[in-house]
């Protein structure tokens, strides 16, 4: 058996493209969650975004593998079931938050069962800082490379957040940012379609 096998692509016959999204923040006021909810409102017909939640995952420990938690099995299956995964990461201490790394560690276990292998992945992040989430995103690209994910190279989604950029209704107040995000989503759907054709 290939120790790092991928999973069959889920939707060679489907007319709907399903993008799972992971929010790397547990904050009830997360700007990264607001960002993805705003992106979801820009989705073209035939593209749906569904959350792959991480808040219920326990801390990973090898001790838990013999009795692999159902919530971790569900998390892994959710990644396999979607056509692509959009990851919105905050930047914590110049890297990704621990909750996100914890989720990714679960995704690689049991040994050899890498849920992200062969999966199209897009990375985005919002921060108020001048380099936005650039440092965190570089770390995340390294992790996803190790997972054999197919990561979108361009456009890069580094969103410098300012209060009011995203309204309570999850509309983007800035036209340039709105246009960028619509193009970003379109580019990711294009990558998913290319991967789907290659796997057909
Ligand atoms: C522990 C911690 C570390 C942080 N480190 C960074 C950082 O390295 N770079 C940065 O741009 N912002 C940093 N921030 C600020 C976050 O960008 C900000 O809290 C942002 O709102 C987090 O995203 P969220 O609202 O989606 O949770 C940090 C915040 C916390 C709580």
UniProtKB/TrEMBL annotation:
Source organism superkingdom: Bacteria
Signal peptide annotation: none
InterPro entries in alphabetical order: Flavoprotein-like_sf, FMN_Rdtase-like_dom, NAD(P)H-dep_reductase
Record-given protein name: NADPH-dependent FMN reductase
Domain NADPH-dependent FMN reductase-like: 18-162
Pfam families registered for this protein in UniProt: FMN_red
Gene3D superfamilies: 3.40.50.360
